[in-house]
Every structure is written in C-alpha cells, then in structure tokens.
Write a structure and sequence with these properties.
With 286 residues, this protein is mainly beta. It contains one helix and 24 strands.
Amino acid sequence: MIEFIRAGGLFALFTMFLPALALSEPLALGAPVTALSAASSTGGEKALWAIANGELIEADVKTGRLAKFVPAGLSEGGAINALTQGADGRLYVAGPGSGVWRYSTENQQWADLSETLPTLNVTAIAAHSTQAETLYVYVPEVGILRSRDGGSEWVQVDGGPQEAIRTFLHSNMPGSMESGWLFAGTPRGVARSMDCFCLWSDAGELRGEVSSLAYNFDSPMNVYAVIDGRLNHSADGGESWSAMAVPKDVSAVAYDSETGRLFAGTTDGNLLYREASGEWQGIRRD
C-alpha cells in the first residue's frame, strides 16, 4: 500500500507539470531551415527571421512565438529560399521563380523588386554590409547582378566563381580595393572576391556543398559556413576553418553582432542559439 501511494504521488506530481513541459517544447518550423537573419521584429524588438517551407517566419527568441509572412503577389509556382538583411534593417527574400522582394517590418508591407531582372530565377541574394541601397543577386547562367538603388535597376557585374552560387554575403572585412568582400557558398566550398570583382579564389580548403554563410559585422574576420550539415568557423577571414560542435545537423546560420549570439537553423526545423559558454540552447515556446 505504501509503495502504491508513493507511485501515485509521483504520477500526480508528473501530471501536474505536464502542461509546463508541453509549453516549453523546442520550437519546430516543420521543415528544414534554408536561411536565417537576426533583425528587428514587426513590433520593433529583436527577432530571428527564418525561411522554411518557402515562407518567411518571424520567431520571438524570448517566447518562441511564430508569425509567417508570404509576399501577396508571389507568382504561382514561385518559392523563396534566400534571405538577407540590408544595412538599414530591411529584409530581402528571393528564390527560383520568385525574383526579389523587400519586406518592411515597420509597416508589414512587401515590395516587388524584380522588374528589371532578366529572369525571376534568383537563387541567392546578399545585401551590402554598409550601403543600404546596394544589393547583389545570383542568377544561374547569367551571373551576379547588382543594384545600387534598392532594387529598382539591376545590372550584371560579374559571372561569379566557377561553381554556381547557392548562398552568399557581403562583408566589411578590411583589405578590399573597393568597399568590402563577397563570400560565396558553392557546391565545392567557399569562394571569396573583393567587391570590385577583381578575382574569385577559394576561401581556404573547406570542401563540400555550402548551404549558408554568416559573419560578425564587428569582427569581420570571423566567418561561419554550413557545409554538408556541419557548422564551421574561420577566425582569419576564410584562410582556415575549424568544425564547431552542434547537437543537430545544421542547414542555416546567422550571427547577431548586437547581442553576440550565433544562431543556427537545423535540418529538422529547430532554431538554436549559442551561449557565451559555448553551449547550444533551443528556442522554445513559452
């Protein structure tokens, strides 16, 4: 009888905490995360933005609450799988069949920036690190196009590296003969070029298909690359790389210089962040 009471008490204690446990479940987006960016939320606070299943998703880091946004004028059959944040905080998305769209978190409005593109088949997008109106996109079989007026006019500026660009970013890393550097993730590894497009070269000897890139704006020699599900870090601008231990397979990465947090999106749709101690925590629902 005593043992039965103890067991019953334990069961009652467990069931009492079940609602709290359910509310603290890891945040799951239901699909692999293809892109990440830490930017202002629609309410003005800091949020983590992700793309999963072709949707732009706002995740509240503190509460785990989600909101989804899709361009109202997105063409049938189009998808978005690329994301970047401009120097002014505005968000840009792109994807095959969708062209380029800008999203304003201030008024929750979309703007189609595809009118002067040669095709809607955009597979990667990068915003200039310091020039708010300068954007870059990659179009297969065309190359890299640049806009200096916020997407009103696109001009081809380079053919890109030898391999197709899956993801890329613009960095304020010093040493460029112009205004910065472009890092490109390709099926072969990471390539880089000054934004004068003088020459593309390998960024170190990291090999494999790169799905995401990020860097620290305040310490731009620190670059992060996701390759074949593994997160890698370079402290010397891509000269050398080392693998980072992450509890899940990673598909996307973002660095928030304001908070010093490194974020990762996983292949099973979770969102993680790295503590100062080096431990990874999952963003959870409140």
